[in-house]
Design a protein that fits this description.
binds iron/sulfur cluster; binds S-adenosylmethionine; about 350 residues
Length: about 350
């Protein structure tokens, strides 16, 4: 690609990945993300006209690709609540330079959409599932939804060929850490990669406390006590999960230790909110408006220069600096800026 393909921030990090939030709405109310008491019936979600349409998203994706972005992840909120999502996938698939398009979803609507998403060009999906126990899962998702519909969604994604499929399990001490081994047992040997995620202090509404975090090393120790594990190299530079392979050849797990072992030094991820703001860090308090210039008719070159200058000034490394003073700072909600 052209030489602009190598835009770097102040710490020498490229702009390789873009996470696109297509909606701030969700059909679940996971306590660590959109607690039901904060995101209640009166919560004001973004009005439709505030949200980027699919052509606008694809337009921006072309600009990001010209700056070196190679991977896209569609997320939210729950992205499958956005109408006709396969249409967006098809537009993104046509963007030159993009070689991977993934989707993160709670899985509930996958039975309806998996095939169409695959046909539109989606590469793979990550499904979030925090427990195999209906009671634990129902409590954590804030809606009492059992595991069966998510498991059906996983089956639908596998049948459609949206692989390699990953499962995200946020581990919250005292809520679902009892499920660490059961989840490992269920998914090992299936070709699915289970990723344990440390509970993070995203947003300001989940009441995060360090005591609720189950450190990755404890998670690995628990799995390892049942099934010997070997450390595996990252698949590519900047991979967020540490990989561990089962010594008996039954696949691998990942652990994402964003709290206890941070990886800001390799962070090549930008986020585009549903409202069209560019966030250069998951923990940023505010984004940079791209929708305004886009809707005002800015040329592709102008948008590219704007994004380039934002990225070149980027110095985020929140997780590395996390301490008692930073956790209380104002931060955008994950459901808003895209997990
Ligand atoms: N609704 C979709 C889903 O749940 O997969 C996509 C959006 S969700 C915000 C993206 C991912 O962020 C999910 O895997 C979710 O478990 C994770 N997540 C949300 N809040 C989190 C937190 N406080 N700490 C760690 N992971 C979190
Ligand atoms: Fe919804 Fe995903 Fe957040 Fe759960 S983690 S509330 S499913 S956006
Ligand atoms: Fe990237 Fe910000 Fe997370 Fe660090 S804290 S890894 S800079 S998103």
């Amino acid at each position: 690609m052209a030489d602009q393909a190598h835009v770097k921030d102040t710490l020498g990090r490229h702009l390789r990945d873009l996470r696109i939030s297509v909606t701030d709405r969700c059909n679940l109310r996971c306590g660590y993300c959109m607690p039901a008491d904060v995101f209640g019936p009166d919560h004001a979600f973004l009005p439709r006209k505030e949200i980027l349409d699919y052509d606008e998203i694809a337009h921006l994706a072309r600009v990001f690709a010209a700056l070196g972005t190679r991977k896209l992840r569609i997320t939210g909120g729950e992205p499958l609540l956005r109408r006709d999502l396969p249409e967006l996938v098809a537009l993104l698939r046509a963007v030159p330079g993009i070689d991977d398009i993934a989707l993160t979803t709670n899985g509930l609507l996958l039975p309806a959409f998996a095939r169409a998403l695959k046909q539109a060009g989606l590469s793979r999906v990550t499904v979030s599932l925090d427990s195999l126990d209906d009671e634990v899962f129902g409590r954590m998702n804030g809606k009492g939804v059992g595991t069966a519909p998510v498991l059906k969604g996983i089956d639908a994604a596998l049948a459609a060929g949206l692989t390699p499929l990953k499962i995200n399990m946020v581990v919250k001490r005292g809520e679902n850490d009892s499920e660490i081994e059961a989840m490992a047992e269920r998914w090992r040997g299936t070709g699915i990669v289970l990723r344990y995620i440390e509970y993070m202090d995203v947003g300001t509404s989940n009441g995060w406390r360090l005591d609720d975090v189950m450190p990755a090393r404890e998670i690995v120790a628990r799995v390892r006590a049942r099934w010997p594990l070997e450390s595996a190299d990252p698949n590519y530079p900047g991979e967020v999960a540490d990989r561990w392979r089962y010594a008996d050849g039954q696949g691998e797990i990942g652990v994402i230790s964003s709290v206890t072992n941070t990886f800001c030094g390799d962070c090549t991820r930008a986020r585009l909110s549903a409202r069209g703001e560019l966030f250069t860090c998951l923990f940023a308090g505010a984004g940079h408006d791209l929708k305004g210039p886009l809707r005002a008719g800015a040329s592709e070159a102008k948008l590219r220069a704007l994004i380039e200058s934002i990225w070149q000034r980027r110095e985020d490394r929140y997780s590395e600096l996390r301490n008692a003073n930073t956790t209380g700072l104002p931060k955008a909600e994950m459901s808003y800026l895209g997990g």
